[in-house]
Amino acid sequence: MVKVKKTRKGLHNRFELMDGVLLIVLVILASMIVIPFVSVIATSFATQKEAAESPLMLIPMNPTIDNYHRLFQDPRIAIGYKTTLMILLLGVPLNLFLTTSLAYGLTRTNFPGAKFIFYAILLTMLLHGGIVPTYLLMLELGLSNKIWSVIFAYGVNTFYFIVMRTYMTSLPESLMESAKIDGAGEWRIMFKIILPLSKPIIATVLLFYSVDRWNEWFNSMIFLRRNDLIPLQLVLRNIVMETNIVNSLSIAGPRVPRFTEGIQNATIMVTMLPIMCFFPFLQKYFVKGIMIGAVKA
């Protein structure tokens, strides 16, 4: 009995030691993520002199909002917000409609050629036509230099479609059969039964598409040439490029407008804050949706 107790006590201490090691590792990993994020926030509220003297700042000694004030004096920021919100509000509903309807259609066992279409869609993850055919298509449709070219260039993400289809295949087939017996059609089954039961995966895919649309810049750079249609991410890219050019010029004097470290970090916060505010409302659905949707993938 004494040996058994000693053994159990040894195992208990061993597990406590492992828990402590695991906790230390997790704290180190969390610090590697949190500390740079806190430093970005602190530097965005710091003066130019303080930001230059402290590469890794956690608390500014003389906090100021001058960086944000100078940033929003640039009219491109307002144009970027307006264009990005247009892309978000017009593009995400289109993405969700196409993804949900396609996923539901390919879960139906009586759909002719469903397996062939599914594997054809999977093939697009490996093979893609490229940007040149897409650009020529937008020219042919007369959408070049219009906001619709950016919206229509990105329809269905294959990975998000697979996750949603996997989730829908896990729903009981008897529900759809009962609805058909009651005389419901496919659209009624989809909107009245499938979509209400698919709230977790819809919220997950909604978050994915929202982040994608918010970070949209490449298609905008290809299709848009108007200064009044520059999205926020492309504006920030131009600011960073101008920063590198101005900082590399030896002739740049005090009269040359400079985008300091504080202003660059302020642009990061301006970009991140809206999507960070959007995430908590979908957090309760996010983990459940992505885990259930990936079980059979």
Q: What do you see in this structure?
A:
The chain is 72% helix and 0% strand. The chain is an all-alpha fold and 297 residues long. The protein has two domains: 52 residues; 228 residues, Orthogonal Bundle (MetI-like fold). It is globular and about 75 Å long. The C terminus is likely disordered.
CATH topology of the largest domain: MetI-like fold
Question: How many E-type strands?
Answer: 0
Q: How would a textbook summarize the main sheet?
A: none
Beta fraction = under 5%
Given the helix and strand composition, which structural class is it?
mainly alpha
Computed over alpha carbons, the radius of gyration is 26 Å
Judging from the principal axes of the Cα atoms, what is the shape?
globular
The level-1 CATH class of the largest domain? Mainly Alpha
Helix proportion: over 70%
Residue-averaged pLDDT:
77
Which segments are poorly predicted (pLDDT under 50) over 5 or more consecutive residues? 250-257, 293-297
Number of domains: 2
Brief summary of the model shown:
The protein is an all-alpha fold and 297 residues long. The protein has helices spanning 2-44, 48-53, 66-72, 75-105, 114-123, 131-141, 147-152, 158-169, 173-181, 186-197, 199-214, 218-223, 232-248, 261-278, 283-293. Mean pLDDT is 77; it is low at 250-257 and 293-297.
Outline the secondary-structure elements:
Blueprint: H1 2-44, H2 48-53, H3 66-72, H4 75-105, H5 114-123, H6 131-141, H7 147-152, H8 158-169, H9 173-181, H10 186-197, H11 199-214, H12 218-223, H13 232-248, H14 261-278, H15 283-293
Helix pairs in contact: 1-14, 3-14, 4-8, 4-11, 4-13, 8-11, 8-15, 9-10, 11-15, 13-14
